[in-house]
């Protein structure tokens, strides 16, 4: 019960527009910075990530984000609202 209530409050907090876009921006920037750090560390060797890797990585991140949004909208949000309603 306490865990479900905490989860509901967390989702309500994350559902705010400024929280969503801030977290998405920070996450994408972190992945991009990690890519450039790897490139700086390995230089032009065969271990260095290529642009194909960057493209594939960002594509996977976008697909994962879309899946999470769809799952949240279809299942989690409906269940939480059925159980707790719209009250705090």
Could you explain how this protein is built, in words?
- The protein has helices at residues 2-14, 17-42, 51-84.
- The chain is mainly α.
- The protein has one domain (17-84).
- Keywords: Membrane, Transmembrane, Transmembrane helix.
- The chain crosses the membrane at residues 21-38, 50-72.
Total DSSP E strands: 0
Number of domains: 1
State the order of secondary-structure elements, H for helix, E for strand.
Answer: HHH
Task: Give the assembly state of these chains.
Answer: single chain
Mean pLDDT: 72
Class per helix and strand makeup: mainly alpha
Low-confidence stretches: none
C-alpha Rg (nearest Å): 18 Å
The profile of the biggest β sheet is: none
| Strand residues, percent | under 5%
Query: Shape, please?
Result: elongated
**Helical content, roughly?**
over 70%
Helices and strands in order:
Blueprint: H1 2-14, H2 17-42, H3 51-84
Keywords: Membrane, Transmembrane, Transmembrane helix
Transmembrane segments: 21-38, 50-72
Concise synopsis of the structure shown:
This protein has 88 residues and is mainly α. The protein has helices at residues 2-14, 17-42, 51-84.
Spell out the key features of this protein.
83% helix; elongated; mainly alpha; single chain; 88 residues
């Amino acid at each position: 019960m306490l865990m479900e209530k905490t989860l509901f409050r967390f989702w309500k907090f994350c559902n705010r527009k400024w929280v969503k876009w801030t977290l998405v921006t920070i996450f994408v920037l972190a992945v991009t910075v990690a890519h450039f750090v790897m490139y700086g560390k390995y230089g032009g060797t065969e271990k260095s990530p290529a642009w194909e890797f960057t493209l594939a990585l960002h594509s996977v991140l976008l697909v994962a984000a879309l899946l999470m949004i769809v799952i949240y909208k279809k299942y989690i949000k409906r269940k939480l609202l059925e159980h707790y309603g719209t009250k705090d």
